[in-house]
Please model this.
Amino acid sequence: MLCRRHEETVFRLVRRYASSTDDALDLTQRAFLQALEAAERALPRLLATDEVPFRAWLLRIAINLGKNHVRDGGRWPRAKTGALDAEETREPSAADRLERAQVERLMRKAVVDLPRRQREVFTLRVDGALPFAEVAATLGITEGNAKAHFHHAAKRLREVVQQSMTGASHDDV
Model:
C-alpha cells in the first residue's frame, strides 16, 4: 500500500536523474527496496517523532539514488513528463521533433548545471509536486530557504532559455 501511494512521486523525482524510462523504473524500484532494507534501522527513529516523515525519508533515498546514478556515469536527460504521458493525435513533423529534442536537451543541461541544492529543490517541487514545507523537510532546510532556492533555480533556467532563444535568432540571420 505504501509503495502504491508513493510510487508515482518517486518515479517522477528519479526521472530527472535517469537517462531512460527503464532507468527511472529501476531507480524507483531500488528506492523502495533500499527503504525496505533500511526500515529495521530507521523505523524506531522515525516512530520516535510525533509525526512519521516516511514520505520525506523515502524521497531522500530516491534523491540519493538519483545523484549516485548521475555520479556513476549516468547522464541526466529528461523529457517533460507531460510530453511522455500525452498521446499526440497527429504525428509531429521532423522539424517539430528536432526542435522539441533541442529544447529538451537544453532544459536537461540547464537543470543539470544548477547548483546542487537548487537542483534538488527544483526537482522535488516540480517533479515530486511537493509543497515547499515537504521540500524543506525532505532536504533538512527551512521552508523559506527552499522557496529562495526554487526562485533562484527558476530565474537561472529562465535566463538560459532566453539566452538560447536570442542566440538562436541571431544564428538564423
User: Anything to note?
Assistant: Residues 74-79 have pLDDT under 50 and may be disordered. DSSP finds eight helices and no strands in the chain. The helical segments are 2-15, 21-47, 54-71, 81-85, 94-112, 116-126, 132-139, 143-172. The longest helix spans residues 143-172.
